[in-house]
Amino acid sequence: MPNIYNALVVKGRDTIGQQINVTCEVQQLLGNNRVRAVAMSATDGLMRGMEVMPRELSSVPVGGATLGRIFNVLGNTSTTSPIHRPAPAFIQLETKLSIFETGIKVVDLLAPYRRGGKKSDYLEELE
Fold it and tell me: Domain ATPase F1/V1/A1 complex alpha/beta subunit N-terminal: where (predicted)?
């Protein structure tokens, strides 16, 4: 039996043959070799009888490699581009100001973000 807060991985294939890999965290021991767990991603396609394996302890890296990165609950980065990039060529620079469209109408109307500002850089990284 896993301990509370341990991670479990459910692996298998759904009814149409797609690979399923869902990580869950144990929240409660119910007895009779059963646990209650919270899934960390979508549970579409999970069925009774799928293989459940213990996962290595979750850890998040620290140090210089994590600066400027965004992590999900499993410790995976959501960005793949490096944090240091070469400067753009002088010809590519624009001097005219433009608005970064967030796609949220209320934000774009009441509090527009300037393209090239700190907020727009963060929002572009999430796209």
Answer: 1-53
Give the tokens for residue 77: 């980065």
pLDDT tens-digit map of 49-74: 888 999 876 666 778 777 777 777 77
Distance CA 113, CA 127 (A): 15
| Adjacency order of strands within the sheet including 34-39 | 34-39, 19-31, 7-13, 51-54
The tokens describing 23, both together, are 């990580």
Contact, 60 vs 68, CB < 8 A?
no
- C-alpha to C-alpha distance for 114 and 121, rounded to whole angstroms: 10
